[in-house]
């Protein structure tokens, strides 16, 4: 099985099932003989993990929208240079849990900074590194948060999850706007079905044909 996409991102609203789908995809690609790196944003490096803690901790409600955006971009810059670019150069397939589309949807569309500032800071952070395919798992945000809090408990919600339902609705809208703006390498997959159904949608987008399980 030839895997033509080397840098693949899964993104979407909270609780859409990205990490489960990424693990399944990684397994299929490894079974096909690929060397696969699974990584995450914000995070993916030691510096990025520290930035992630700052960004998600409910202890910092005073964080301004611009600081938040710059921190997401700082994590991405480090991640691209330290991990993603070298892995791609070494021939690995990189599966990344969130990337630029999340910044567009959360900070640019749902947040108050506007899409243009986000797009230009993101371009500086990535220095032109763009995924071969971005798959946006789409789900009503109330359903996603319900699934997530059922697993993790609402009391453990992070600073961004704690936003009002209307914010999460705008995030979903932001992902759709992103897909309209960058239709070439972006696909929206309905994430409301079973894990198997969603995975079938992910594989279809990537042109991966699996035998019977
Ligand atoms: P996760 O819980 O899916 O790992 O994502 C961490 C949180 O960070 C999630 O609430 C989405 C948010 N986020 C942004 O707001 N902007 C970004 O650029 C990224 C990568 C994540």
Describe what this molecule looks like in 3D.
The protein is an alpha/beta fold and 213 residues long. The chain has a single domain (7-206), classed as P-loop containing nucleotide triphosphate hydrolases (Rossmann fold, 3-Layer(aba) Sandwich). It has eight helices and five strands, in the order E-H-E-H-H-E-H-H-E-H-H-E-H. It has a five-stranded parallel beta sheet, with helices on both faces. Helix 2 (46-56) runs antiparallel to helix 3, helix 3 runs parallel beside helix 5 (115-126) and helix 4 packs across helix 7 (165-181). The longest helix has 25 residues, at 65-89. The radius of gyration is 16 Å and the shape is globular. It starts with 6 loop residues before the first strand and ends in a 7-residue tail after the last helix. The model has no long low-confidence stretch (mean pLDDT 95).
Describe the SSE topology.
Layout: E1 7-12, H1 18-31, E2 36-40, H2 46-56, H3 65-89, E3 93-97, H4 100-110, H5 115-126, E4 133-138, H6 141-152, H7 165-181, E5 186-190, H8 195-206
Parallel strand pairs: 1-3, 1-4, 2-3, 4-5
Helix pairs in contact: 1-8, 2-3, 3-5, 4-5, 4-7
The protein binds thymidine-5'-phosphate (TMP).
